[in-house]
Structures are given as structure tokens and as C-alpha cells.
Amino acid sequence: MERNIKLIVEYEGTAYHGWQWQENAPTVQGVLEAAIRKLTGEKLRVTAAGRTDAGVHAWGQVVNFKTHTALPVYKIMMGLNAHLPRDVRVRQADEADLEFSARFSAKQRVYQYYISTENTAIYRNFCWQLFQKFDPELLNPVAESLLGEHDFGAFSRVQVDTAHKRCRVEESRWFRQNGLWVYRVAANRFLHGMVRTIVGTTIDVARGRFTMEEFQEIFNSRKRELAGAAAPAKGLFFQEVIY
Predict the structure, then answer these.
(1) What is the DSSP pairing of strand 180-187 with strand 236-242?
(2) Is 53 annotated in the active site?
(3) Dihedrals φ, ψ of 92, to 5°?
(4) Dist CA 36 CA 142 (whole Å)
(5) Going residue by residue through the chain (243 aa), what tens digit of pLDDT does each one get?
(6) Whether residue 70 is found in the same domain as residue 28
(7) Distance (Å, rounded) from C-alpha 237 to C-alpha 200?
(8) Cα separation, 193 vs 143, whole angstroms
(9) Same domain, yes or no, for 23 and 134?
(10) Rounded to two decimals, what is the model's pTM?
């Protein structure tokens, strides 16, 4: 009997060339599918809620796959973790309806980006260590201007495999947590490189490279070449998925 297994997966992206399977490079999808094959004997493809770039991490990536294994879900979780490298963990496993898709059933995806303004050994692989002075009072005015449905072409890679670049942002805010600056953003979809470019350009405003008016002009232009450089990948986490 066919079953649909839903996983919540946590991973450190430092050693991987992103989520998506590649023939000649280590990826998170690749090691997860290899673990499933070792556990069940089935060679299959998993579906993820979103793709993460090289060096990007995840607290709550959601994955589903169809299987004929009779193993109970708690043994699936335990068995996969036994076969996975230590930088990839299955945090939860459940049986879902056959119609459930980690990607297409999702209503919102949530990312968080972390910045440290101090030298740090513990968080060095998990944040952007930013030592230039910036005005934190400008962070949330920029973030709030992104709320709603807009074309985010100015903050995505020029070539994307989607029909359009419109996204609906439901949450966009900065806050302090454990001595770090955190940007949290939730949207129905994200474009390739979108969050990192938003963060990099926002910091450019806070450092005085762009004014708020110039930021809005960049946003409205839909031209990636006018925006700032993308923030480093290691500060970005795929936080959770809302269904």
C-alpha cells in the first residue's frame, strides 16, 4: 500500500551545495534520498517545501515522499537519522494524506536571517559578522515597505524558473535575539536569492549607501543590478512552513 510520509528536517548547510540534488556535488536532498534508500530499499525523489542555496541552513524544512514501506513513522525517523550525517536530522515524521505536497500545499514559508555585530566563534557559520556601523532605526521602515504583494525582481536573480516574480509578503520585520539582529520574513513564495538580497540592500540603507527613497526606486524598478550585494549565505535559515 502506498503511503505519503511527511518529514520536518533540520540541517546545517555549510558542507552542502544547497538543497537540490546534483550529480557531482553533495546536497541535502542527495543525502536524505540516500538514507531513505538504505532504510527502505526504495530509490525515489523527495519533494521539499523550498530549495535552499549552498551554505544556507534550515530549522524546519518540510519534505514528503511516497513509499511502500510498512515501517511505523517513529521507526522511519529513527532509521533515517541512523543513516544521515550528523549535520542533517529528521526532527519529526508523520503520515500525511496522499494528496499532501510539501511544496504545493504550503501557504507560507518563513525565513530568518542573523547578523552579529561582534566577533563570534560559536555562531561564525550561522550569521553575517558585520562590523561596519549602521543605523538600526532604518531597518524596520525598509522591512515594512515590503509587506503585501509586489514584483520582487529587484531582489532576485535575473534568470528564474518561474513565470513571474510576484510574491505576497505577510511578515517582514527586524528584532534583537540573543545579541543578534534577526530579520524574519514570511511569504507565499520566494525567488532565488530574494531574502539575501533584501538583507544586503537593507543594510546598505542602514549604512547610508541608499536613502529610503532610493530603496523604493530600486524596488519599483524590478532591476536586480540596481540593488545591493546579497548577504552571505551562512546567515540564512529556512525557519518553518505554514500549511
Answers:
(1) unpaired
(2) yes
(3) -160, 145
(4) 43
(5) 999 999 999 999 999 999 999 988 999 999 999 999 999 999 999 999 999 999 999 999 999 999 999 999 999 999 999 999 999 999 999 999 999 999 999 999 999 999 999 999 999 999 999 999 999 999 999 999 999 999 999 999 866 666 789 999 999 999 999 999 999 999 999 999 999 999 999 999 999 999 999 999 999 999 999 999 999 999 999 999 999
(6) yes
(7) 15
(8) 17
(9) no
(10) 0.95
CATH number of the domain at 118, please: 3.30.70.660
Cell of 126: 550561522
* Domain limits for position 87: 3-96
- Gap between the Cα atoms of 11 and 18, Å rounded: 11
Catalytic residue among 53, 94, 97, 204: 53
Cβ neighbours of 51 (radius 10 Å): 17
d(CA 198, CA 181): 15
Distance of alpha carbon 132 from alpha carbon 209, whole angstroms: 12
Residue 235 cell numbers, joined: 546567515
